[in-house]
């Protein structure tokens, strides 16, 4: 938790420099509290860096494709010249990501994670998949992660303006 706190302080300090007046001075504190509520419910003082990174990526303002690629990079394992994501790593990713809606009472059961993992690996004979297959599966908007593209579309639509008058 202390390491993550230090990283968040640096991250938000840099953000305050880039966008003066737009970043709350307590952003690092609030973000750390959110991460602890999601990943350290028993108060051990330990949060997996990878879990925290997945949440920060999911909650970032980046494009969906950039988020999906970052998830792959964090959870994939090297296999020679390529990186692959295993069933186990996919389960970990989905479990980590599902702590985000769970914090607001929209939790998913473990069976949802298993069904999603099975759907991703449907027709795959190997024990792991390449990034292209992973991205293709995510673009199909699996039910277990439907909240992620929905939140992205909502945040993207906040910046849309039109000149039409409503009645």
From TrEMBL:
One of its GO terms (biological process) is synaptic signaling. One of its GO terms (cellular component) is synapse. Gene3D superfamilies: EF-hand. Residues 65-154 form the EF-hand domain. It comes from the Eukaryota. InterPro entries: EF-hand-dom_pair, EF-hand_dom_typ2, KCMF1/Dystrophin. This is Dystrotelin. It comes from Cathartes aura (Turkey vulture).
């Amino acid at each position: 938790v202390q390491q993550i706190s230090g990283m968040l302080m640096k991250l938000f300090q840099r953000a305050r420099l880039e966008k003066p007046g737009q970043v709350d001075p307590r952003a690092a504190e609030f973000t750390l509290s959110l991460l602890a509520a999601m990943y350290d419910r028993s108060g051990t003082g330990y949060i997996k860096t990878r879990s925290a990174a997945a949440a920060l990526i999911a909650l970032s303002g980046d494009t969906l494709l950039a988020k999906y690629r970052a998830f792959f990079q964090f959870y994939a394992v090297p296999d020679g010249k390529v990186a692959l994501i295993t069933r186990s790593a996919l389960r970990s990713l989905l479990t980590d990501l599902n702590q985000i809606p769970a914090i607001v009472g929209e939790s998913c059961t473990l069976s949802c994670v298993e069904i999603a993992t099975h759907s991703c690996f449907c027709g795959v004979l190997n024990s792991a998949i390449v990034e292209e297959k992973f991205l293709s599966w995510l673009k199909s908007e699996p039910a277990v992660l439907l909240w992620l593209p929905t939140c992205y579309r909502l945040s993207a639509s906040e910046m849309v303006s039109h000149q039409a008058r409503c009645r």
